[in-house]
Amino acid sequence: MKSMPAKGRPGKGSHRQKGLERETSLSKHAPLSDRAKAASINKQLDPDGELIAPHPNWNAFLGTILSDKGDRAGAAEHFRNYLTSCGGELDVAFIMRQISLVSGPAAGTLPVTKGTSTAELVSMVRSALQGRARDDRLARYLRDTGLAERLDDRTVETLESEGAGPQTVAELLRLRDESVRRPQPASPVIETPAAPSPEEQEQIWAAAAQNSLHYAESLPNFLCTEVVRRYLDPNDRPYDTLQLRLTYFDRKEDYQLITARRTYQQTGGATTRGEFGSLLTSIFSIGSLLESHWDHWTTLRKRRTLVYYFRTPLAQSVYKIEFRPSGAGPFSSTKASQQGFVYIHAETERVVRILCQAENVPLNFPVQSAASRVDYDFIDVGGNSYLLPVAAQIRVDSPAEEHRNEVAFRDYRKFTADSNIAFGSVKN
After folding, report:
1. What is the pLDDT of residue 57?
2. Other CB atoms closer than 10 Å to residue 89's CB: what's the count?
3. 300: which strand partners?
4. Is the pTM of this model over 0.85?
5. Residue-wise pLDDT tens digits, 34-79
6. What angle do CA 115, 116, 119 make, to 5 degrees?
7. Where does residue 126 rank: exposed (0-12), middle (13-18), buried (19+ CB within 10 A)?
8. Which residues is 298 bridged to in the sheet?
9. DSSP readout, 221-281?
10. For the domain 198-414, what is the CATH code?
11. Residue 191 and residue 139: Cα distance in Å, rounded?
12. Domain spans of the chain?
C-alpha cells in the first residue's frame, strides 16, 4: 500500500511543485521583497533533509537574499552563476545591475544606466566576463547604456584582452565614439604604465619599421581560406558571404572566389586586399616623411603593446581606395592619405594591429570615408611560426550605402608543388 504524507505536511513532490509554482509566477519586474520570498521558498529542505532541486532562477534569487543580508561577495558569485547557466528567465540587464551594485567599490554603487561613469561600466563588464556571460547578452545590455565620461581605446582594448567577445567589443567601440566629447574620468580607469623614454620610443618604432619593410620577404609560400561577411549597416545580418582561396606565392597575393564564375572585384561593394605586406609597406616605406609618435600603452591578446599614431602625406602615399557599387556600376579607384594607429608587440617589436582612416578623399569620388582594422598573430605554417593576418574589418561609406566587411583568415598551410587544394563551404 502506498504511504500517504502526514496531515498538514505535503509530500516530497507536492512540496517542490508548490515552491516552483510560487517562484515561477513572479515577474522579472516583481519587487525585490517578493523575489526574496520566492528564494526563501526554494531554500527550504524537503522531508528527507535534502535541498530541493533548484529552479533555473535559483542563483538570481539567492543572490538577492545574500545582497540584502550584506554578503556582497556571495551575492556576486550567485549572480555570476546565473549568467553562466543562462537557463533562467530573468532579464540579463537586471542581473548586470545587481552585479554592478554588489561588486562596486562601496555599498550603494549605482547600476550601469544612462550617464554612468566609465569606472562603473568597466566594473560591470569585468563582472559579467568573470561570470562567463554570453557575448550577445552583454552586448544587448550595453546597447542601452550611455556614458557621462569618455571611454578610450586603451580601456576597450584591455577589456577585449580580458575576454570581451566581438559583439561586446563592437558596442564598447560605439560607446567610445559616442563619448568622445565627454570629460575624461577624474582618475585612470585602467592602470597605465609609465611612458617609455623618447629613446626607447624611437628604437622600438625603428625596429618595427624594419621588420615591416622586410615582412613580405619573411613569409613562406602558403595557402589559406579568407571568409568575408559583408553587411550594409545598420543591418545585423550579412547580405552575402564570400569565400576566397588566397594564395601567397613569390611575395604576391592572389584572390580567387570559390565556386563563383566571377572575380573578387566583380562582386561589387567593398573589397579588401593587401593585408600580407602592402598595407605595412604603405605606412613605413616613406620613412622620414611619415609623421609618427608614441601614443599609449595597451594590452592586446594578453600581450603588452605599444601604440603609435601615424599620418602619411598625400604626395608620398601609396594607399588606394577601390570601390564598386553593389549593383551595376563602374569600378573606381583613387589615391588617398592615411592616419591611424600602429600596435607594436613590446617583446617581438612586430606590428600586431593596424587601424587606418583614409584622408584627402576626392570630393567627386563615390566613397566619402574609408576605415580598416587588421589584426596579426603568430600562426604555425609547416612547422614554423609566422606573423600573419587573422582578422580584418573594413568600413566604406558612400552617399547611398554604408558597407562593412568582417574578414577572417583561417586554414593556413604551406604551398608546395603537390599542394592539394580543398575548401569547404561557409554558412552565413
Report:
1. 66
2. 12
3. 303
4. no
5. 444 444 444 443 444 444 445 556 677 677 777 777 777 777 777 7
6. 150
7. middle
8. 305
9. PEEEEEEEEEEETT-SS-SEEEEEEEEEETTEEEEEETT-SS-SGGG-EE----TTTHHHH
10. 2.50.20
11. 24
12. 13-178, 198-414
